[in-house]
């Protein structure tokens, strides 16, 4: 893998690398990155991988190469501005709803804010990073009291604390480093949205690449609610002398009325009253922006800057939604009243086009993950990131690359794909059990047959079970059943405590079950006897009412493709592969992946899904599986 990555850097061809758990893929791209003659950016999806790179892999690599002549071992971590404490906000105060700077909130929240402020000042004194990940325990709401978004920031030259700023110092370190570690979202903002966030680079490694399209979609999703517009109007009232801020507040009322008349879910055709309300908000926000007093030289005021930023955000989101672009999907999302009530959301219908035009044409990109071959092939993932299957060339190039699907003016983007395998012998270490005898899952959650099956399997394994469920309700129902019928085991459900605490309990006591939803499907690494059974209640297709997925599926059908296979089955295959990957994490692990959904072996699409999984020995016989689990449990002790 290291040789192929280095070759890709040198010849400028894009590369997809499937590298199974345990192959050491991070070192396989970090070594060529250190040896490359220009800066390399590594983008990850999760904080856990960033921590692994920065706290484990890179220090070991630097120690190994520090005496090599002509090799730069410098590296830096770069995140979005809101991930760093803001010294201006900490020292000058936070704007309230009227834009007045308030020192500290009252009550217990005020005490926690003071703790965060003290931590940030200590970081500033000791040349710390001021990163959120290193801060004392806090909520999102608390963190907003000590941080700002990029739009709210005064800017280095206009801020009294610009030279001390944690975010600016992180950018300075990145500009002096050979290697920049960042995340998918920041990469998207820099490369696709064209907002310069990362120092100049020509090569990108996208790790956890199976996540990249979802993360880029997330970064390009905008939200707008009545509360957002009202808040922006209230903050603007202190700075705008005319009626423009009041007009914006009136527009919020029109939006509230139009939202109340609309239905939850995807909006294919914007109703006239909602379209009118969005235009009203857009125009009122534009007028309000024009009414803000101009800032003079050295006349920086955080309250004014942040009030204006709020109005600018409302304008941008309303303008995008009112445009009703075919390239966007609009929907109404219903939140609890305490969390703000209904909101409008807009997201790109697809991201492969922007990725191809804005990232792949300008940079050399290496995509890597343990899960890149879906249905046994790279084509699905390649297409999702903007590379055409017809542009793939053999690992050893032969002849000229020809893409017959490209027009005369369209640039061909050749790429290679390699699977470097796995150190694990899945055929001997793992069993895939499909409960063919069970009824297909219904809409009413887990039935008696599924609950009986879960209890029997968990009993045979004597705990040691990670349950991956399609909904929080299903996870909690299963947990209640196992607790009632197997009281000698410890059964934990997601939500009982914070995920790190649940994971710690799961590891410490082998006679434990941990049941949860999506964050457990991809974020848990538990090698050893702790986890010998991974339960999956149903094939994880997206919900039929998911606005974005359903729109993408319909668009694929309309373009002559198979929307179900291209969108729903691909989504399910990716999650199934990730979920199954929780079982075998080392060469000594053994266990069972149990799928309680018979469609994996009875439906036509089952072959595609199975081809996306590790090559485990497969059975549909429950007696065989229970005996295997009992043997594993007795040998584990």
TrEMBL record:
* Enzyme kind, highest EC tier: isomerase
| UniProt xrefs under Pfam families | Helicase_C_2
Q: Is Lipid biosynthesis included in the keywords of this UniProt record?
A: no
Reaction catalysis annotation: ATP + H2O = ADP + phosphate + H(+)
Record bears the keyword Nucleotide-binding? yes
EC no.?
5.6.2.3
Q: Cite the Helicase ATP-binding domain residue spans from the record.
A: 1-266
Q: Name one GO biological process term.
A: nucleobase-containing compound metabolic process
Keywords (A to Z) from UniProt: ATP-binding, Helicase, Hydrolase, Nucleotide-binding
Instruction: Offer an example of a GO molecular function term for this protein.
Output: ATP binding
Superkingdom to which the source organism belongs: Bacteria
The family note in this entry says: Belongs to the helicase family. DinG subfamily.
Name the chain's protein.
ATP-dependent helicase DinG
């Amino acid at each position: 893998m290291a040789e192929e990555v280095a070759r890709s850097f040198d010849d400028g061809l894009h590369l997809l690398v499937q590298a199974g758990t345990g192959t050491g893929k991070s070192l396989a791209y970090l070594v060529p990155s250190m040896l490359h003659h220009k800066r390399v950016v590594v983008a990850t999806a999760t904080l856990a991988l960033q921590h692994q790179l920065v706290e484990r892999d890179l220090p070991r690599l630097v120690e190994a190469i520090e005496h090599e002549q002509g090799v730069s071992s410098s590296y830096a971590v770069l995140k979005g501005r809101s991930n760093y404490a803001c010294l201006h906000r900490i020292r000058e105060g936070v704007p309230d709803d009227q834009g007045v700077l308030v020192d500290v909130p009252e009550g217990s929240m005020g005490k926690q804010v003071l703790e965060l402020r003290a931590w940030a000042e200590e970081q500033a004194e000791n040349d710390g990073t001021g990163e959120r990940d290193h801060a004392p325990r806090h909520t999102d709401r608390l963190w907003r009291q000590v941080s700002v978004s990029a739009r709210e920031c005064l800017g280095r030259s206009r801020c009294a604390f610009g030279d001390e700023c944690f975010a600016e110092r992180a950018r300075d370190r990145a500009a002096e480093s050979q290697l920049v570690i960042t995340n998918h979202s920041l990469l998207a903002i820099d490369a696709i949205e064209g907002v310069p966030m990362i120092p100049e680079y020509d090569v990108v490694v996208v790790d956890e690449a199976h996540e990249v399209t979802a993360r880029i979609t997330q970064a390009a999703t905008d939200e707008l609610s009545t509360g957002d517009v009202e808040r922006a109007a209230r903050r603007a009232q202190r700075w705008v002398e005319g009626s423009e801020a009041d007009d914006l507040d009136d527009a919020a009322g029109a939006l509230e009325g139009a939202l109340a008349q609309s239905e939850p879910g995807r909006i294919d055709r914007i109703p006239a009253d909602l379209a009118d309300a969005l235009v009203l908000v857009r125009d009122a926000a534009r007028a309000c922006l024009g009414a803000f007093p101009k800032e003079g030289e050295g006349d920086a005021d955080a309250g004014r800057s942040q009030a204006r930023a709020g109005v600018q955000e409302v304008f941008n989101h309303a303008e995008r939604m009112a445009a009703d672009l075919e390239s966007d999907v609009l929907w109404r999302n219903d939140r609890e009243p305490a969390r703000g009530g209904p909101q409008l959301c807009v997201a790109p219908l697809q991201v492969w086009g922007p990725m191809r035009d804005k990232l792949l044409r300008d940079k050399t990109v290496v995509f890597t993950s343990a899960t890149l071959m879906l249905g046994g092939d790279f084509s699905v993932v390649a297409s999702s990131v903007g590379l055409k299957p017809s542009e793939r060339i053999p690992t050893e190039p032969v002849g000229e690359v020809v893409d017959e699907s490209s027009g005369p003016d369209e640039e061909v983007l050749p790429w290679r794909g390699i699977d470097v395998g796995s150190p694990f012998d899945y055929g001997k270490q793992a069993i895939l059990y499909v409960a063919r005898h069970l009824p297909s899952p219904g809409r009413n959650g887990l039935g008696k047959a599924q609950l009986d099956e879960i209890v029997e399997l968990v009993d045979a394994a004597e705990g040691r079970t990670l349950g991956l469920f399609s909904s929080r309700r299903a996870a909690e129902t299963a947990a209640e059943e196992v607790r009632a019928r197997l009281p000698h085991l410890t059964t934990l459900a997601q939500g009982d405590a914070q995920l790190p605490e649940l994971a710690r309990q799961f590891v410490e006591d082998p006679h434990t079950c941990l049941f949860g939803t999506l964050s457990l499907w991809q974020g848990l690494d538990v090698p050893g006897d702790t986890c010998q059974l991974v339960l999956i209640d149903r094939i994880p297709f997206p919900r039929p009412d998911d606005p974005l997925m359903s729109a993408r599926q319909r668009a694929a059908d309309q373009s002559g493709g198979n929307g179900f296979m291209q969108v729903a089955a691909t989504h399910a295959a990716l999650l199934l592969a990730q979920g199954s990957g929780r079982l075998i994490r080392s060469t000594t692990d053994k266990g069972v992946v149990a799928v309680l959904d018979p469609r994996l072996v009875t439906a036509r699409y089952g072959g595609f899904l199975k081809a996306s999984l590790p090559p485990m020995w497969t059975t549909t016989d429950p007696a065989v599986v229970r005996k295997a689990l009992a043997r594993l449990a007795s040998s584990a002790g």
